[in-house]
Design brief:
The chain contains 14 helices and 16 strands. The protein is of the alpha/beta class and 424 residues long.
């Protein structure tokens, strides 16, 4: 553990970019704090995280932790997201909203390890992430205090911030400013800003890195068998792997076939509509497979109820409530539904499409004898009339009553009209 000084300490969620690098020096000068940076690996695209660590130290941090969070992320968070088939607004697999809780968990752990009183982040005052970090941190340890430098400083444009960094001895990133804002992890990529801010503009080809264009995808379909046990993928084409490795494998297979590109209009928590592009080959294909297996093994009323609960779960997580009582309770419900979600799903990828072409499970509720129309039919057709009579009885009683009352009202209306005629 770094010794630092007698100053109070803050744990900073550090990405290595310009803003978080400035945050270190700004917090030192404006809040008189010692800074411990935390760099989280959640499967994002990056070069050397050791280089990021050295940048944090060169910017003035007294220490920098580089934490490989990928296994925890997959097993503790993405497994729950898959059980919930989590699609925000029934459109896209949650990305940033899922990674922020695991990063926050490690920020809080670091605060406890270093005896820090503060947690800091480099989020702006306009996006969702500021809410996600802060609500997660305060749910995990309400005694910690939040510092958000970007909401406080007035450093202007990127050029102005780079000038400030040079004046204060902060190493300035040598890479040019990206035309897009990108957040990514092993579950996918979120791309926004630049030309994408005009919803009429077609997304340029250069925004995609995980998927090939469907037009350039192989001319022959690719088949993949995904095996599940208790709702968790455990093998690809018979080869057992960790959940994390399966995500990587499905990113590769689906991406090579041009599947997983989304271009949507999204409703942010803060009330702003935002045009977002997502690249989610592995996560979306696994959700497709998981849903298909659930369709086979879950009882109808449970399956129907679960659909509504899934939307609630996704809303809770998107809206920064990953550690809320409702979301935690829903996790318990979903865990129960996954007990028998065991089986194999065969998927076909072709030119940007992902189709389920086969499902099998020892827990299948599909009965060929009940479903077939051929000579092996075991369904008791004689039961149909009695079922229909009872099932439709309430509607029949309601309709008989309303028709009878309508007739009475018509008769009374006719009598009243006749009286009016005599009166005239």
């Amino acid at each position: 553990m770094a010794e630092g000084t007698n100053k109070e300490r803050a744990i900073l969620a550090y990405s290595g970019g310009l803003d978080t690098s400035i945050c270190i020096k700004w917090l030192q000068e404006n809040k008189d704090l010692d800074i411990i940076a935390v760099v989280g690996d959640v499967g994002q695209e990056h070069g050397s995280l050791e280089d990021v660590k050295q940048r944090a130290l060169a910017s003035g941090a007294i220490d920098c932790l580089v934490v490989d969070m990928r296994e925890d992320y997959a097993n503790d968070i993405l497994a729950k997201a898959l059980a919930a088939n989590a699609l925000y607004e029934n459109k896209y697999p949650l990305l940033s909203a899922l990674s922020r809780p695991i990063i926050s968990k490690h920020l809080v752990n670091a605060a406890h390890e270093y005896g820090a009183k503060y947690i800091a982040h480099g989020c702006t005052g306009k996006g969702n992430d500021q809410v996600r970090f802060e609500t997660s941190v305060l749910a995990l340890d309400p005694a910690l205090q939040i510092v958000a430098p970007v909401r406080e400083w007035d450093l202007g444009s990127r050029d102005s911030k780079m000038a400030w960094a040079r004046e204060h001895g902060v190493p300035v990133p040598t890479t040019s400013e990206k035309p897009y804002s990108i957040d990514d992890n092993v579950w996918g990529r979120a791309i926004e800003c630049g030309v994408l801010e005009n919803p009429w503009n077609e997304p340029p080809d250069d925004i995609w890195t995980m998927t090939v264009s469907p037009m350039d995808a192989p001319d022959e379909p690719t088949y993949v068998d995904v095996q599940f046990e208790g709702g968790i993928p455990v093998a690809i084409d018979g080869e057992r792997m960790s959940f994390l490795d399966i995500i990587y494998k499905m990113n590769e297979v689906a991406g090579e076939n041009g599947f997983g590109r989304l271009d949507i209009m999204e409703n942010r928590l803060v009330g702003v509509k935002s045009r977002e592009c997502y690249e989610v080959p592995g996560s979306l294909s696994l959700i497709v497979a998981h849903k298909a297996l659930e369709d086979m093994v879950l009882e109808r009323d449970l399956l129907h109820y679960k659909l509504g609960a899934e939307l609630t779960w996704a809303d809770q997580v998107y809206n920064s409530l990953y550690y809320s009582p409702l979301k935690i309770a829903l996790d318990g419900f979903f865990a129960e539904t996954q007990r028998y979600v065991t089986g194999t799903v065969r998927m076909r990828f072709y030119k940007g499409n992902c189709d389920v072409v086969g499902v099998k499970s020892d827990y299948s509720l599909y009965d060929h004898g009940l479903a077939t129309y051929d000579d092996s039919d075991t369904f008791n057709h004689d039961s149909a009339k009695g079922f229909i009579d009872l099932f439709g009885l309430r509607n029949k009683v309601w309709s008989e009553n309303r028709h009878a009352m309508d007739a009475v009202h018509e008769q009374l209306a006719g009598v009243a009209e006749t009286k009016d005629e005599f009166a005239e």
